């Protein structure tokens, strides 16, 4: 007997939860430092292009698979794909990708938890503080980083153990609106600094001479990372969706929200960075090193820093919920255990696997995999290999192997857009998305001389 499939209680709950899955570390932590390190406005322009032309069609494709099968990721592809074909393993690829992604994602989540708690007690912004040294002290403390990892994973396990409506949807309806409100406050304050417009120009004025193959690959990976496509998170979320809800408008809403939050992140960070003469290419420590320095030089800086950190924490949590959900739902479908038990077991596994990444800045700093720390290797593997490869196979599956009548039926359900729009999306998915992914890969490897 099949286990009863849960459902979202409202379309808004689904959109906010899906947006929460997309808007997290990708938009707020990773996007600003990747933009700062890879050409500023040119990177942002390419990122938007990839999000609209490649990312959005892939979000719709994952929605089509999930609701078309009414199954979580692993079972969905096994149900819809030819048996024993390579496409039947896309769901497994996604679950493994989500597991690795959450393992290092939760490490950063732990850092934010620590900083958030410290900011409440006024321990972050202090007179004469060296914020680089503070970041190194926190990440260099193995017990502290593991404790942060443990608490972050515990929160996720608690929410996911309560299911879709009472867990993910309930918390996303609160956290996502707060995210936008907090962000707008920070952006308004950021733009009032003298010299802020230099940061705006860096962020919004493209200089394509700064781009190379590696930058473009990172922009493609960033688009996939920030939309949470390629690891079938959206397959699992859409499997809980009623048949009368439009997948296309829902996917467009998620993509637009993601671009908007990325825009807000840039407008919140780069004006402050340039106003105070700081370094935009700080890297993963941008939020933790540069922003406390900037906030310390403004009135009510401690308050604004606390707001930003809690905003960041909310965004990370809504995103990490989706990763643990795809793992939990897949195991829940295949085992006899209860959702609560499986959520806690999955959380424990993520915690244990995340320990090497948590120790990458301290006791395992000299341990390298292909020249990268455990943390960086996990990030690179997921962002630049697993997500693009997953997206490539999803595009090929929905575009060439999945039953076309079912694909069109799911695309048109809820809000028919006409055959012309279906054909446009279908051709983008079948040809533009796969060809672009392959070309960017080859370009990044130096195959093309231009």
UniProtKB/TrEMBL annotation:
The keyword Transport applies. It comes from Oceanobacillus locisalsi. The keyword 4Fe-4S does not apply. Its main location: membrane. Belongs to the sodium:neurotransmitter symporter (SNF) (TC 2.A.22) family. Keywords: Membrane, Symport, Transmembrane, Transmembrane helix, Transport. The chain crosses the membrane at residues 12-31, 43-65, 86-114, 143-162, 174-196, 216-242, 254-278, 298-321, 342-360, 380-400, 428-448. InterPro entries: Na/ntran_symport, SNS_sf, YocR/YhdH-like. This is Transporter. The lineage of its organism: Bacteria, Bacillati, Bacillota, Bacilli, Bacillales. Pfam families: SNF. It is found in: Membrane. It is a multi-pass membrane protein.
């Amino acid at each position: 007997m099949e286990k009863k499939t849960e459902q979202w209680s409202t379309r808004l709950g689904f959109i906010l939860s899906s947006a929460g899955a997309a808007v997290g570390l990708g938009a707020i932590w990773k996007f600003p430092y990747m933009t700062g390190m890879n050409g500023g406005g040119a990177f942002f322009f390419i990122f938007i292009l990839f999000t609209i032309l490649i990312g959005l069609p892939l979000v719709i494709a994952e929605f089509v698979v999930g609701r078309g099968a009414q199954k979580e990721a692993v079972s969905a592809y096994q149900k819809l794909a030819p048996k024993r074909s390579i496409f039947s393993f896309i769901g497994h690829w996604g679950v493994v990708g989500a597991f690795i992604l959450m393992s290092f994602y939760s490490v950063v989540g732990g850092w934010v938890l620590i900083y958030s708690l410290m900011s409440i007690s006024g321990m972050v912004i202090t007179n004469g503080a060296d914020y680089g040294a503070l970041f190194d002290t926190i990440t260099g403390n193995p017990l502290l980083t593991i404790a942060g990892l443990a608490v972050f994973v515990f929160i996720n396990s608690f929410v996911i153990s309560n299911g879709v409506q009472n867990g993910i949807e309930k918390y996303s309806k609160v956290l996502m609106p707060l995210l936008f409100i907090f962000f707008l406050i920070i952006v308004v304050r950021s733009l009032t600094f003298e010299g802020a417009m230099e940061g705006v120009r860096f962020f919004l004025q493209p200089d394509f001479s700064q781009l190379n193959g590696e930058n473009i690959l990172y922009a493609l990976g960033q688009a996939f990372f920030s939309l949470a496509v390629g690891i079938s998170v959206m397959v699992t979320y859409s499997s809980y969706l009623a048949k009368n809800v439009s997948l296309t408008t829902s996917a467009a809403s998620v993509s637009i929200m993601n671009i908007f939050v990325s825009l807000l992140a840039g407008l919140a960070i780069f004006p402050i960075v340039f106003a105070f003469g700081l370094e935009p290419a700080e890297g993963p420590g941008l939020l933790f090193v540069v922003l406390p320095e900037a906030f310390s030089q403004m009135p009510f800086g401690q308050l604004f820093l606390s707001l930003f950190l809690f905003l960041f924490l909310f965004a990370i949590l809504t995103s990490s919920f989706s990763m643990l959900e795809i793992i939990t739902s897949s195991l829940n479908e295949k085992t006899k255990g209860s959702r609560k038990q499986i959520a806690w077991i999955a959380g424990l596994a993520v915690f244990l696997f995340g320990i090497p990444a948590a120790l990458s800045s301290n006791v395992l700093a000299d341990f390298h995999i292909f020249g990268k720390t455990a943390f960086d290797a996990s990030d690179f593997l997921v962002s630049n290999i697993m997500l693009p490869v997953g997206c490539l196979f999803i595009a090929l599956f929905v575009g060439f192997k999945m039953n076309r009548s079912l694909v069109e039926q799911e695309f048109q359900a809820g809000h028919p857009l006409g055959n012309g729009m279906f054909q446009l999306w279908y051709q983008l998915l079948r040809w533009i998305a796969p060809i672009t992914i392959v070309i960017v890969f080859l370009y990044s490897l130096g195959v093309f001389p231009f």
